[in-house]
Design a protein that fits this description.
Radius of gyration: 15 Å
Order of helices and strands: HHHHHHHH
Number of domains: 1
Structural class: mainly alpha
Number of helices: 8
Shape: globular
Strand content: under 5%
Number of strands: 0
Distance between the termini: 20 Å
Helix content: over 70%
Length: 195
């Protein structure tokens, strides 16, 4: 018997592992590997039909590719791809949100994270707030309930940033720490969503 997953009943271990794989591939610009990880992440995280999962993972890939160049990325294009992704999520999940607004929240945390990577003036708290904005909006969740999930994801980002500065070596133990933090983040999110 296949266990159904969805936006409120995902497996935090699977989603956290796939997101770690996606972040690793992103920073190494290994786009085929990123797409494989995105398929797994979208499938486990949202439980959409296979054709929607593939389309959604493609939009996530394209959004990340147009976002990746620094400092000359394309935030409008990234938001457009993420809007298409969130249209699929909304159509498949029963969650009620505006896909354009969800995409704006998504790319906003990307922007704040990018600034946090390059400026000590951008705080972890600002990044945490951006994630809380996204989670509370998409899942219609209480802001305080999703705070721990956001905090653990920021911790994972800091570990990822250290891994990038150290040279992006797949054997670096920082990846295992990042993976644990992302799994903890998704476990906290699932608890916050009451599932």
């Amino acid at each position: 018997m296949r266990i159904r997953t969805g936006p409120l009943s995902f497996d935090p271990v699977v989603v956290g592992n796939r997101e770690t794989d996606a972040w690793t591939a992103y920073y190494r610009h290994e786009w085929r590997e990123f797409l494989v990880a995105a398929v797994g992440m979208v499938s486990a995280g949202f439980g959409m039909a296979p054709h929607r999962t593939l389309s959604g993972a493609w939009y996530v890939l394209r959004a990340n590719q147009v976002w990746a160049p620094y400092p000359d990325n394309q935030p409008d294009a990234a938001r457009a791809y993420m809007r298409r992704f969130y249209e699929l999520v909304a159509a498949s999940s029963g969650l009620l949100f505006d896909p354009a607004r969800a995409a704006a929240f998504e790319v906003e945390w990307w922007r704040i994270h990018r600034e946090h990577q390059h400026s000590p003036d951008v705080t972890k708290e600002q990044l945490e707030t951006a994630l809380i904005d996204l989670y509370s909006y998409v899942y219609d969740a209480d802001r305080d309930a999703v705070r721990r999930a956001a905090r653990k994801r920021v911790e994972a980002m800091d570990l990822s940033d250290r891994w990038v500065r150290a040279g992006c070596d797949r054997a670096d133990p920082l990846l295992a720490e990042e993976r644990r933090a992302l799994v903890a983040s998704y476990a906290a999110l699932r608890v916050a969503l009451g599932s």
